[in-house]
């Protein structure tokens, strides 16, 4: 075992997969220069062909990733910051998500897009997006949001080995986390949520940066005699509805904590699934704790209160218990 | 001609051009009768541009097409029975009925699909070329796109990357004078799109898109450069489409009808090549035999499509992923 941070876990996943499979390569803006800290040492180890700095042309290089994937490469495209996917949106939707289907299975699309989310850091409305709900509406993509160094490494490795397109939404509010992880190779199957804390009174499903808050809330609620089961969703598509429904069947109550905007969110989708499939287990209304439907302001005073916090999750759980 | 073309190759060019034309005329008739459905952008009139380009490639080279897509896979060597079945939405279609008219393909002959979001194929072709380069093989990729597509950012982003990375890719702009109803000169700020190549440090060449041998010569040189590691080329074929933007569209491009008379009468690529072949000494009988063989092929393809099964309803949910997941319905 050894201890790593979230970014070191990502770096290890990239290095090990590039060592294992020469078809894997990285491209994106400044990847060779390690601008954001996840690609350190890779250029020296693999060279500039496989750690390829690109022009600032997201549609161009994301689409080029798709073309390379179609002819047998396994690109990992670094989006630098999640909202920079927007200039590449058509390539992601029209080409990456749809080519396997449109051509009746002739095209494989083994591509990974890494989309670091840098919210909560005074970057204002254009740089603070958590855009996974947008992509959840598009069939053909797989979406993951690892919330620990252990998961970040194992899920990114699984994503790189997957024959389908995967967008990895990395939550950089978690970069301070450290985990012990195995020294040997491991992968985490996509589409499996993790029950992080068992409980019997209420289910709290959380994803990405909301997970540590949900765990802290579980701890706090225990002190007040409420037994919360905390589930880290980990994977958005495929969505592990079985784990969620089984938990709600046991607890009868559900809070969903999601750092993205509440409108059309993962929290909304989970709520709808539970309302439809688990209605008769429910003993209280489902409560979503997500970001209100407003832009992310620059001022820290304004920004800080918008996201899910431990306190908000605790309060939601208490309301559900009342 | 600086390069010599064998008689066999010239006859194969003629065959493929004729195949495209007959395929288009037949399927268009089926569309108007209601046997086919969907948007339908034909390649008639552009056969020399397509076939001259594709014949400069090997079967294992890659090609990316556009919404005006029936001709591109045929030019690349695809058999037409599964293409026709695809237009009928049948299970035996090349895409198993998932793609239809704007997405004909045949990965078996390097036809990596046709994308109907204008300009979206350029980065894909660029990436396929990047893949070949990284794999260390000598395959090249040819990307067709229209004059309209040259205004998309993807065109500029792709040419910049291809030149920067010295990729084995040939960009063939089929300039048919219009993007839907808008004349090219109202949408593009330069008279020759090929002149844009200078901005990316690659050769840009204008060629008569109705002359299959001229296209073949220019593209062959671009392919040679690409294979030799000398980088990308932009080729602009000046051509014309012989049908409405899309078959059955109620509106005609202003002036299109008059221009059509001229182009069909004097600039038909198949007529021009027919004449050239005879000047090279090819006899009439050989060419008419090819016409007849292609007609039989097209009839057989229609029959194949008609007798093929419809896809089963559950096929709407297959091929969404290579490694399938549970799908919410
Ligand atoms: C992004 C996008 N915008 C608009 C359209 C609608 N559209 C379909 S074909 C076309 C014209 C394309 O012109 P050009 O690239 O010259 O190709 P041509 O049809 O002349 O072969 C347009 C605007 C589209 N399919 N995609």
Q: Could you characterize the architecture of this molecule?
A:
The complex is a heterodimer of chains A (322) and B (329). In chain A, helix 10 packs across helix 11 (266-277). Chain A is globular, with a radius of gyration of 19 Å. Chain A is an alpha/beta fold. Chain A has helices at 6-20, 42-50, 58-70, 89-96, 99-102, 124-127, 132-136, 149-161, 210-223, 241-251, 266-277, 300-303, 310-321, and strands spanning 2-5, 24-28, 51-53, 74-78, 112-117, 142-144, 166-171, 178-181, 194-197, 202-206, 228-232, 235-237, 254-261, 287-291. Chain A is built from 13 helices and 14 strands. Chain B has a single domain (7-307), classed as Thiamin diphosphate (ThDP)-binding fold, Pyr/PP domains (Rossmann fold), CATH 3.40.50.970. Chain B has 329 residues and is of the alpha/beta class. The mean pLDDT of chain B is 96. Chain B contains ten helices and eight strands. Chain B is globular and about 50 Å long. Chains A and B meet through helix 3, helix 4 and helix 5 of A and helix 5 and helix 6 of B. Chain A: Keywords: Oxidoreductase, Thiamine pyrophosphate. Chain A: InterPro entries: THDP-binding, Transketo_C/PFOR_II, Transketolase-like_Pyr-bd, Transketolase_C.
């Amino acid at each position: 075992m050894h201890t790593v941070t979230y970014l070191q876990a990502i770096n290890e996943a990239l290095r090990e997969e590039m060592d294992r499979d020469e078809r894997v390569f990285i491209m994106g803006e400044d990847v060779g220069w390690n601008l954001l800290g996840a690609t350190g040492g890779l250029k020296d180890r693999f060279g500039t062909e496989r750690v390829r700095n690109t022009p600032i042309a997201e549609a161009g290089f994301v689409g080029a990733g798709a073309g390379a994937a179609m002819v047998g490469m396994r690109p990992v495209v670094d989006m630098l910051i999640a909202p920079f996917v927007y200039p590449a949106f058509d390539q992601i939707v029209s080409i990456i998500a749809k080519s396997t289907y449109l051509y009746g299975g002739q095209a494989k699309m083994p591509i990974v897009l890494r989309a670091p989310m840098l919210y909560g850091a005074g970057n204002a409305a254009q740089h603070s997006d958590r855009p996974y709900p947008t992509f959840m509406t598009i069939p053909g993509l797989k979406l993951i949001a690892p919330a620990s160094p252990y998961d970040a490494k194992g899920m990114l490795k699984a994503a790189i080995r997957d024959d389908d397109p995967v967008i990895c939404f990395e939550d950089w509010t978690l970069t301070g986390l450290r985990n012990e992880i195995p020294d040997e190779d491991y992968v985490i199957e996509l589409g499996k949520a993790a029950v992080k804390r068992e409980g019997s009174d209420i289910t709290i499903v959380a994803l990405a940066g909301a997970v540590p808050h949900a765990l802290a809330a579980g701890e706090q609620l225990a002190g007040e005699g409420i037994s919360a089961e905390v589930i880290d969703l980990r994977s958005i598509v495929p969505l592990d509805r079985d784990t969620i429904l089984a938990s709600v069947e046991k607890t009868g109550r559900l809070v969903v904590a999601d750092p993205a905007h509440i409108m059309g969110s993962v929290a909304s989708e989970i709520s709808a699934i539970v309302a439809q499939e688990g209605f008769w287990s429910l003993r209280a209304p489902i409560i979503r704790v997500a970001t209100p439907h407003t832009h992310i302001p620059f001022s820290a005073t304004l920004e800080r209160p918008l996201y899910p916090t431990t306190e908000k999750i605790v309060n939601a759980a208490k309301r559900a218990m009342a | 001609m600086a390069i010599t073309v064998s008689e066999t190759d010239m006859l194969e060019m003629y065959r493929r051009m004729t195949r495209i034309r007959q395929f288009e005329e037949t399927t268009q008739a089926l569309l108007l009768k209601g046997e086919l459905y969907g948007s339908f952008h034909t390649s008639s009139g552009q056969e020399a541009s397509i076939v001259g380009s594709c014949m400069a490639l090997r079967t294992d080279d890659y090609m990316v097409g556009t919404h005006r897509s029936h001709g591109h896979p045929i030019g690349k060597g695809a058999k037409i029975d599964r293409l026709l079945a695809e237009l009928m939405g049948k299970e035996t279609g090349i895409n198993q009925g998932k793609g239809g008219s704007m997405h004909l393909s045949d990965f078996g002959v390097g036809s990596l699909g046709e994308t109907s979001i204008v300009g979206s194929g350029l980065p894909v072709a660029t990436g396929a070329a990047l893949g070949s380069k990284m794999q260390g093989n000598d395959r090249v990729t040819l990307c067709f796109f229209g004059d309209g597509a040259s205004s998309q950012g993807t065109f500029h982003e792709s040419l910049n990357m291809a030149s920067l990375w010295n990729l084995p890719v040939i960009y063939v702009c089929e300039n048919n004078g219009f993007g839907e109803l808008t004349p090219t000169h109202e949408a593009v700020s330069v008279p020759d799109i090929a002149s844009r190549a200078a901005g990316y440090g690659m050769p840009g060449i204008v060629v008569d898109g109705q002359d299959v041998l001229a296209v073949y010569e220019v593209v062959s040189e671009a392919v040679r450069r690409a294979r030799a590691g000398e980088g990308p080329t932009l080729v602009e074929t000046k051509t014309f489409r012989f049908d409405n933007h899309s078959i059955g569209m109620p509106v005609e491009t202003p002036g299109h009808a008059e221009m059509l008379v001229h182009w069909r009468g004097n600039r038909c690529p198949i007529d021009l090549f027919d004449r050239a072949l005879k000047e090279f000494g090819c006899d009439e009988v050989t060419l008419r035999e090819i016409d007849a063989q292609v007609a039989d092929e097209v009839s057989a393809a229609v029959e194949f499509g008609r007798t093929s099964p419809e896809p089963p309803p559950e096929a709407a949910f297959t091929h969404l992923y290579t490694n399938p997941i549970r799908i919410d319905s």
